[in-house]
Amino acid sequence: MATPTLEPDVKPVKKAAGKQPLHYRFILATYRIFAIAALYAVLFGVIAYAFVMGFYAVNTTWAAPVILTATDEKSLDFREKLITSQQSIEDLKVDAAKMDAGLKEMRSHRDALLALEPEIASAIDRERQHNRVDAPELTALDRQKLADDAQTEQVLAQLDGMQANIQKDLASGLITKADAASQLAALNQTATSYTDSRIAQVLLTDTVLDKTTLGSTTLEALEKQAELRSEAAQLDVSIQVADQELTEDNRQISRLHDAIVTAKQSPYYLNATGQNLLNFAFVPYDNRASATPGSPIYDCYLNMIFCRDVGTVVTRFPGEEQALHPIFKTQIRGFLIQMDLRHAESAKSKTLFLGRKPLLF
Hints:
Blueprint lengths: L21 H37 L3 E5 L6 H85 L1 H14 L4 H36 L3 H48 L3 H7 L5 E6 L11 E6 L3 E12 L4 E4 L6 E11 L10 E3 L7
Antiparallel strand pairs: 1-2, 1-7, 2-6, 3-4, 3-7, 4-6, 5-6
Helix pairs in contact: 2-4, 2-5, 2-6, 3-4
């Protein structure tokens, strides 16, 4: 009979609680550390983001550097307008010079015409005075001439009978042919003198008419006087219009000069015409109190700490500019300033601070 084999009473050995393998414990510890680190990193990031948002929401000293070049669209547009304005000024100056020369010539011509008017008026007065004096005498002479011509005409009526008598005496031999020719020539001379006297009487009548009425000479003088006055009046109108145009041209030149002077206060003018590299920065209206000329400029690490003095504010420009907030990325309004930077790299920073360090270090 077989003897039963006694098996030892072996109980399974339970692993002690918390006695995981080493690599398991390492992975678990690493996971916990990573989770805690990630949690704190997120928390720190949220706190840092909130701090940055709050910092830039309340800070009134920051400015955003702006890099302008001569090839920027605004600079090119500004330069084109500046050249156009300068060309307009030159054109207006040429027109004003021509207008001024024309005004001088018209005034000189007008003065010459007005100087002639008293001479014409004086000549007309003298002629009228002479007519008043000469007209009665010439009228009396005309009447006397008519009477003389009437008597001469009576004498001429007898010449036909005298001529017949001369022919009879020549035929009867009482006178010679020479005597007859001489007597006939005397009679013909008398007739010719009568004709000349009649012509003189007609001319004297015309002269009396000229002296007693407005003759052609007086009318011509009056016509010239009227033309002179009309031309002088037209010159007055032309001078007035030209003077107004010249005044307006000068005002336009002055306005363009003022516009250019104002434009020279723009950063785009300095940028478009300057040879040296200039540095500018955008300042929102809320930060304008810190953007005074001569104020120090600070460049900071992480945009707010460990700051160093990198330059000063040179000037501020009056024109309004619009830009994106460097942190919030929203549209904001403000103005530009010119900076004198000792460190050129600071012009590439996201923000700079004006007047003082933002966090005292």
